[in-house]
Input
Amino acid sequence: MLIPFPTFESNLTAMLDAAEELRIGRLENATASLAAIQRKLGRIHGSARHARLAEHVGDAVGACRRGEAECALYVLVAAFSAFIPRKAA
Output
């Protein structure tokens, strides 16, 4: 019997879009986008990888809400390096 293994859905495009919003100074747009990604990731249960990425995105959301765009970008870069598959980078 073949047991299907859940695949890790890529949030790369949405996260890159949010990073671009941060880069150009649209903090409110980036905050909303990242909060939506965090909610989406939070609905996935039983996946340590999704939970860990949700923590990174949550940290970026917190930085955005404090007005720390550079910190949010730093957290996103850390998440990109930890979660993006090598062949997608």
